[in-house]
Specification:
Layout lengths: L10 E3 L8 H10 L4 E8 H6 L4 H5 L8 E6 L3 H12 L5 E6 L4 H5 L11 H13 L5 E6 L8 H14 L4 E5 L21 H10 L4 E5 L5 H9 L4 E4 L1 H5 L1 H12 L9 H16 L9 H5 L12 H11 L6 H8 L5 H5 L28 H8 L1
Helix pairs in contact: 1-12, 4-6, 6-7, 9-11
Length: 377
Amino acid sequence: MGARHYRPPLFSVAPMMEWTDTHYRTFARIISKHAWLYTEMLAAETIVYQQGNLDRFLAYSPQQHPIVLQIGGNNLENLAKATELASAYGYDEINFNCGCPSPKVAGHGCFGVRLMLDPKFVGEAMSVIAANTDVPVSVKCRIGVDGHDSYNELCDFIYKVSSLSPTKHFIIHSRKALLNGISPADNRKIPPLKYEYYFALLRDFPDLRFTINGGIDCADEVNLALKEGAHGVMLGRAAYHKPWSVLGQVDSAVYGDLRSGLTRRQVLEEYQAYGDAILGTFGNNRPNIRDVIKPMLGIFYSEPGNSLWKRKADAAFQKCETVKSFFEETLVAIPDYVLDSPIVKEVSGREDLFANVKGLLPPPYITREEEVVVAYA
């Protein structure tokens, strides 16, 4: 199944290491039928060197479509082979990581966001990835790295990658990355957001598609970005930590579906069936119940009983072996009206989030085609 069979990626959930695993994606899909879901980043070398165990890393249930595989790496041969192997699993898009600032990735690994400093290699990488798959390819990147953070440098990266490869879709995290001295968590909040860079890209590259990422926290703000012309919006931790209020709004508020009347109780019943089936499948190698439960611990975010529910969850992990028994131990903390009420729209308190962006746009980018031809002939 290809990307053309699904609604466009107006809303997507970002790839997050140790977060967007198959359990989270299953849980998210129960709540939203249209959100595009990304895997955790998977190193090309892992795929290549685990050929006898690929299901562990690449398998997923058909219900998770539309789903995007994110690959990381800096070796063209491994990227080509990894893409070829992954293509058998039917992902809807292959995304290349040029945005992760983790020292394990951008430092010793010399890939992730550090690759933004080498657009020629990224263009070559995207060419070999595209040559080994039948689905669209995309790049996720920042707006810059350390001192290389001018709008023209970002445009040079976009222009060279798209000129040297079939890449037509870029996910833009609207912060630069700082590689020295701050953690990945601080890299998500210390460098300032520059949404004006994103909207300038829409102006200067009308033949490409851009998804905006960073600092957007709810479906109402997704619609604010779309109203300003964004092609798509990606959320990360807000979609994980507030799954009910964020993902629960996507199908109706973003995609225009009629409200389903879905309740938390219904979501948990469906997820229980999934979780207990998974826990009973693998024998001695079955998943840890904590890993299965982890994705839905935020479903009662800001609701009455949430704190007590979390405390009960910590205790239940020590003795429960099934999702059913876990819920029996913990859901007594949550009032019935919370379990049975349908989704209520979350309204942003930041209606002016993009109000002044258009007045901050940098001057139009002038493509330096002669330099590109000379440099990459």
